[in-house]
C-alpha cells in the first residue's frame, strides 16, 4: 500500500479508522511499528518504556547522539556538570516519578532535601522544610505581621491542589479519536460538568483557574518581603511570576514544596539510562542521530513520520516529545470547524528566556553550614524576585570519594537571563560570580573551577534552539489540563513532554507519559 499524505482539514474524517500497519523502514528487525516516539527526553523515554513493556512494538527516534534531552550533563576538565536539572519532585510515595519507576522496576536512588528550598532576601531568610509544620516558626520569625495570612494562603492553596488531583484521578482519559468524545472531555476539564468534586470545590477550582495569582495574593494581606519569597519559589518551580499564572497553576506548582523534593546522586540522566535499558529489554528499538522531519497523515490520521534523511517510518501512533510545530510543518495549525485554534495565539513552546548556569567548585570550608541543596537568593528588594534578580544555588551531589578527596563543594549557581544578553560575554561571567558572592560573601578562592555554558552549548545539550526553558503560555487556555495529553487535534498523534504542561518538572513529564501510554495501550 502506498500511503498518500494529506493535510488534515475539517472536512477530512477525523474518525477514519487507523491505517493498517505496513512495513517500516529497511534496516530494522521489525516489519511494522505500533508506536513511533519522536524525542528521547524523559517524556519520550518514559512513554516508550511503558508501551514496550505493554507489548507494543516501539521505535524511538532521537536527533542527538545521546538520550536524556534536557537532563544531559557535561564533563569539563574532569568535573561533571549538569545544565541545571537537579531537583526531583514526585519521587516520594504516591509521586508520579516513583510510580513510573515502580512500574518499570527501576531503582533510582534519591536523597530527600530538607529543607526543600531556602529563600534568602536581603534581610530575611526562610527555610521551607519538608514538613509544612516547620514553616510556621520560620514565618513567625521573619514575617510576624503576615503569619495569619500565610496560614490561610497555604491552607487554601493546599485545598485547591488536592481537589485538582482528585478531579484528575476521576476524569476519564482524553479519547484520542472522535470529536464528540473529545468535546465531552474538554467540558469536564473546564469543570462545567466536574465529577467527583463537590459543588463548592468545583466553584473554587473554576475561580482559581481564571484568577491571576497576583490578584489572589492581594487578598491575604502579605507584606512585600513575604510576597517576594513566594514569587522566588514560583519563578524557580514554574518560571512564571504571579502575574503570568493563575491561582490554580500556582497552587499546583507550590504543592511541590509540600510534597518534598529530592536529588538523585547519579543525576537525572541516570533515569534516562534506566528507561532506555527497559525499552530495549522489552523489545523496543532506539535510533540515535535520527531526526524526525514531519508527520505523515493518511485518511485524517497521523500515520507515521519522515526523517531528515528522507526515510519514511510508518506507525499506528506517533508520540511527540517535541513541540508539534516541529513535526506538523504546514499542517500546524489547520483545524477548522467548531474547535478552531486561533492562529495568532502563540504556542506554549515559544521560548522566552534561557537559563545560564555556572558550575563552581570551592573549598568546603567556605560554605555556610546552613546552605542546603537549593537556595534562592533575591538580590534587590525593590525589584521582582525573578529573572536576573533571582540567583539559585544548588549543591551538586558529589561522586563517590570526590567530596572527601579534595574537600571541594561543587555548586551550580545560576541566573535566568534574557536571550538578548550576550551569552559568552565577560559581563555575564562577572554577574554570575557576583551572584555567588552574595551567597557566600568574602570567598577568596571561588574559581577553583568554573564553567559557563553559553547559549549555543545549552542549545546543543537541550536539543532545542536557544535551549528554551520558558514558554509563552496562555494560562487560561492551558489551565486544568496538566497531566493530560495535549489536544494536538490530530488522531494518531499524542504528545508528551515538558512543553505540554503549564509545569515543567520531570514529575509532570512522567505523569503525562503514563497517561499517554495508558491511552495507547487501551486502544
Ligand atoms: C535549565 C533547566 C533546569 C531544569 N531544572 C529542573 C529541575 O531541577 N527539576 C525538574 O524536575 N525539571 C527541571 N527541568 C525540566 C526538565 O529538565 C524537563 O521537564 C524534562 O527534562 C523535559 O523532558 P522532555 O522529554 O519533555 O524534553 P527534552 O528533554 O527536551 O527532550 C526532547 C528530546 O527530543 C530530541 N529532539 C528534538 N527534536 C527532535 C526531532 N525532530 N527528532 C528526534 N528527536 C528530537 C532532543 O534532542 C531531546 O533529546 C529543567 C530544565 C532546564 C532546561
Form type: globular
The CATH superfamily of the largest domain bears the name FAD/NAD(P)-binding domain
Count of DSSP H/I helices: 16
Name of the CATH class of the largest domain: Alpha Beta
Bound molecules: flavin-adenine dinucleotide
Strand content: 15-25%
* CATH architecture level-2 label of the largest domain: 3-Layer(bba) Sandwich
CATH fold-level label of the largest domain: FAD/NAD(P)-binding domain
- Classify the oligomer: single chain
What is the arithmetic mean of pLDDT? 72
Structural class estimated from helices and strands: alpha/beta
Please tally the β strands and state the result: 19
Question: Which residue ranges are poorly predicted, with pLDDT under 50 across at least 5 consecutive positions?
Answer: 1-27, 332-353, 399-405, 446-451, 462-488
Summarize the structure.
Helices cover 33% and strands 19% of the residues. By secondary structure, it is an alpha/beta fold. The radius of gyration is 23 Å and the shape is globular.
Amino acid at each position: 500500500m502506498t500511503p498518500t499524505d494529506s493535510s488534515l482539514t475539517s472536512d477530512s474524517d477525523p474518525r477514519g479508522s487507523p491505517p493498517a500497519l505496513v512495513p517500516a523502514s529497511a534496516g530494522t528487525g521489525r516489519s511494522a511499528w505500533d508506536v513511533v516516539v519522536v524525542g528521547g527526553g524523559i517524556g519520550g523515554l518514559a512513554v516508550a518504556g511503558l508501551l514496550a513493556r505493554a507489548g507494543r512494538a516501539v521505535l524511538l527516534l532521537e536527533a542527538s547522539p545521546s538520550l536524556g534531552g534536557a537532563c544531559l550533563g557535561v564533563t569539563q576538565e574532569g568535573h561533571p556538570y549538569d545544565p541545571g536539572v537537579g531537583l526531583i519532585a514526585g519521587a516520594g510515595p504516591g509521586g508520579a516519578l516513583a510510580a513510573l519507576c515502580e512500574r518499570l522496576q527501576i531503582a533510582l536512588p534519591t536523597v530527600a532535601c530538607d529543607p526543600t528550598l531556602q529563600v534568602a532576601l536581603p534581610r530575611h531568610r526562610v527555610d521551607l522544610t519538608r514538613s509544612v509544620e516547620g514553616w510556621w516558626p520560620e514565618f513567625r520569625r521573619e514575617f510576624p505581621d503576615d503569619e495569619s495570612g500565610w496560614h490561610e494562603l497555604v491552607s487554601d492553596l493546599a485545598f485547591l491542589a488536592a481537589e485538582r488531583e482528585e478531579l484528575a484521578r476521576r476524569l476519564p482519559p482524553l479519547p484520542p479519536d472522535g470529536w464528540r468524545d473529545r468535546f465531552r472531555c474538554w467540558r469536564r476539564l473546564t469543570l462545567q460538568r466536574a465529577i467527583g468534586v463537590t459543588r463548592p470545590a468545583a466553584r473554587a477550582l473554576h475561580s482559581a483557574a481564571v484568577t491571576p495569582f497576583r490578584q489572589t495574593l492581594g487578598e491575604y494581606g502579605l507584606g512585600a518581603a513575604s510576597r517576594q519569597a513566594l514569587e522566588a519559589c514560583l519563578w524557580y518551580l514554574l518560571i512564571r511570576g504571579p502575574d503570568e499564572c493563575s491561582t490554580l497553576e500556582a497552587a499546583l506548582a507550590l504543592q511541590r514544596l509540600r510534597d518534598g523534593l529530592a536529588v538523585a546522586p547519579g543525576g537525572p540522566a541516570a533515569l534516562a539510562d534506566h528507561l532506555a535499558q527497559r525499552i530495549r529489554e522489552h523489545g523496543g528499538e532506539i535510533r540515535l542521530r535520527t531526526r524526525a522531519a514531519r508527520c505523515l497523515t493518511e485518511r485524517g490520521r497521523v500515520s507515521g513520520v519522515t526523517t531528515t534523511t528522507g526515510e519514511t517510518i510508518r506507525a499506528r501512533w506517533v508520540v511527540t516529545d517535541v513541540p508539534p510545530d516541529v513535526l506538523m510543518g504546514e499542517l500546524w495549525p489547520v483545524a477548522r470547524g467548531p474547535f478552531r485554534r486561533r492562529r495568532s495565539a502563540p504556542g506554549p513552546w515559544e521560548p522566552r528566556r534561557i537559563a545560564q548556569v555556572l558550575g563552581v567548585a570551592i573549598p568546603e570550608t567556605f560554605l555556610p553550614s546552613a546552605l542546603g541543596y537549593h537556595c534562592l537568593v533575591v538580590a534587590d528588594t525593590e525589584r521582582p524576585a525573578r529573572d536576573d534578580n533571582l540567583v539559585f544555588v544548588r549543591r551538586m551531589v558529589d561522586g563517590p570519594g570526590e567530596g572527601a578527596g579534595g574537600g571541594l563543594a561543587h555548586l551550580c549557581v545560576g541566573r535566568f537571563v534574557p536571550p538578548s544578553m550576550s551569552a559568552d560575554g565577560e559581563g555575564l561571567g562577572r554577574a554570575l560570580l557576583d551572584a555567588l558572592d552574595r551567597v557566600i560573601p568574602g570567598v577568596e578562592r571561588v574559581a577553583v573551577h568554573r564553567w559557563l555554558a553559553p547559549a549555543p552549548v545549552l542549545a546543543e545539550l537541550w536539543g532545542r534552539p536557544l535551549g528554551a526553558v520558558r514558554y509563552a503560555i496562555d494560562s487560561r487556555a492551558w489551565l486544568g489540563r496538566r497531566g493530560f495529553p495535549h489536544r494536538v487535534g490530530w488522531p494518531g498523534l499524542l504528545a508528551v513532554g515538558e512543553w505540554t504542561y503549564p509545569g515543567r518538572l520531570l514529575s509532570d513529564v512522567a505523569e503525562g507519559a503514563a497517561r499517554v501510554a495508558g491511552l495507547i495501550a487501551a486502544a
